[in-house]
Amino acid sequence: MYCLTHTVVGGMTAGRLSNPVAAFLGGAISHAILDAVPHHDYKETVWGIFDLLLALGILFLARWQPELFPPAFIWGGLGGALPDLEWVLRHLSGKEISPIFPSHNRLTPHNPLAWPAGFWVQVVVMIAASGLWYFYIR
Ligand SMILES: [Zn+2]
Which protein residues have their CB within 5 A of the ion that is ligand 1? Predict the structure, then answer.
């Protein structure tokens, strides 16, 4: 899934935890669960940069307007996004580095879904996680 999706869902679902380490780990667990949901992944660097800027933007928004987000959103969001750092390092190095995160090395499912359906799935997942926070948990 996109970095933005992992950041938003990791932050919204795990960010309720009061312990930052637990929120971070919860975000990482949400990453593996989200990767099992059929989704679109881009291959071009330009989309990766755009995606990263959006994810950083939501983290800065959470820092700037914390009352709009779960208490540990930033920790949950970082934990959600960080596993994909191994894809970035692999891409930038140009080497076939073996992934270690379970949903990246096929220990747990990682299901593709073509554009545009695989894009809209992620929009729906982000809205659902945010809606869950705003209407039921907050
Ligand atoms: Zn991933």
Answer: 35, 84
